[in-house]
Amino acid sequence: MINIQRPSARQNQLLARQSQLLNTLPSTEPSARQNQLLNALPSIEYERLLPHLELVQMNCGDILYEPGEKLHFVYFPTDCIVSQLHAIKDGGSSEVAVIGNEGAIGITLFMGGGTMTNRALVQSAGYAYRIRQPLFMQEFDRHDALLHLLLRYTQALIAQMAQTAVCNRHHSVGQQLCRRLLLSIDRLPSNELTMTQELIANMLGVRREGVTEAAGKLQQAGLIHYSRGHIKVLDRPGLEARVCECYHVVKNEFDRLLH
Amino acid sequence: MINIQRPSARQNQLLARQSQLLNTLPSTEPSARQNQLLNALPSIEYERLLPHLELVQMNCGDILYEPGEKLHFVYFPTDCIVSQLHAIKDGGSSEVAVIGNEGAIGITLFMGGGTMTNRALVQSAGYAYRIRQPLFMQEFDRHDALLHLLLRYTQALIAQMAQTAVCNRHHSVGQQLCRRLLLSIDRLPSNELTMTQELIANMLGVRREGVTEAAGKLQQAGLIHYSRGHIKVLDRPGLEARVCECYHVVKNEFDRLLH
DNA sequence: CATTATCTGTACGGTATCACACATTATCCA
DNA sequence: TGGATAATGTGTGATACCGTACAGATAATG
């Protein structure tokens, strides 16, 4: 197993900090079947891919790629969460997609672009399986199931991005906070997250104070409990009642395309 | 040649109105080579596709597909503009992508999803070539050039959507108006557009009054001239100086991926 | 235990956008 | 030509979010 190393200097201290908070990795190593895409492959193709898959530990704050940077692996998370962040010149940024065990990081490899215009950042520690580009492309070109599965997945990702664009325009910080919380706990085994309000603000592209206020309301309503970077979801139905439609639209589209 | 018919009732009167304004179609029929994707194909594959391509007239307000609706053609615009609109329940909407002769409508067909979650609407009249799904898939599966070209195009489209999400969060109506105007004239032969402020407001997902104000400033600055649905761009460099970076980022990504 | 760093709460004025209402002007068409 | 329709201009108050500043509170560290 490999631990991804990156010069951590370029990333905000936020994440360095956060990685100290939560590196409680599960003691048992996961199986590649825990990634839903890999799991959706027919046995024969899964078996053929398996020897090329390498288990890697994903730590909070790890950067899988930067804008314009070549990526050499496709990653299939089993229990970590990665977010695709799009940054602008003045320092602002927004998350355009959240990826967990339902998906893969590195679509640019099979889409043919070579690089992306955004950054992939590990939000929540865990494991992923990865495969080297040449090996992957070999398998990708050889059989249809992998190709068509990944293309459908990419379309689901497109739906997520489009919905994010609309959501950014039309919905309030409070609603988007709900959406973001649900997106995270959907991809985690427990109902506890480890992210500071400042980090959430970065994801949503809003002020930290805005998140404080919105989170305060959710806590007052008894939907969540948070304290210094630890958020516990107490009432999931309550969150779903407050979230904007965007959450369900995207979720339905993922289900439709991948099940 | 075929004229796309749709029950126009479902669409705002805006577009019905607009289609009256601008149906000044060019008198000479275009060539499929005017679509940049088709033009990028090697001759052999282009020739093989050609007999299946059917010229259709695209009128303002035509709807190519609605959310969840099956699409039976892939469209390759030569000189029309189509926008992908994402709507939400309360009636609000935002444009997530603009497609002209650099692209294609109907990626869902080769991505394998069958349907999209948004609507494709003709914004500016013109022509497109289209090909029926079974014929298209036949060609698509047969040779690599078409597949890889369309996948790279799809990645460019993804970049556009991601940037739209960020832009919606961080940039002002004025900047977004500039972006939208540039996107349009890039895809048209002249520097004149035919769209009312209300229609632009629909695209951007903002109020009509907001567009009036922003457009007023641009006119005062001598960058554009507009009058009742006709907009003439007088100073393109001026617009580029005001537009947010999003415009250039997306443009560069298209160039990188498709040239 | 004391210190420091980090996280969260709060408060203030400023600004962009909204929602609504209505006036004005240009174009269309009977 | 005149009335209807469509497009644009303007105004007013509300609201959500921003930028900034700073004050607790909690955890990490030596």
TrEMBL record, chains A, B:
One Pfam family per UniProt: HTH_Crp_2
Keywords in alphabetical order: DNA-binding, Kinase, Transcription, Transcription regulation, Transferase
Record's protein name: cAMP-binding domain of CRP or a regulatory subunit of cAMP-dependent protein kinases
GO MF annotations, alphabetized: DNA binding; DNA-binding transcription factor activity; kinase activity
A cellular component annotation (GO) from this entry: cytosol
SMART domains: HTH_CRP (SM00419)
SUPFAM superfamilies the record matches: cAMP-binding domain-like (SSF51206), Winged helix' DNA-binding domain (SSF46785)
PROSITE patterns linked to this entry: HTH_CRP_2
Residue ranges annotated for the HTH crp-type domain, each copy included: 171-237
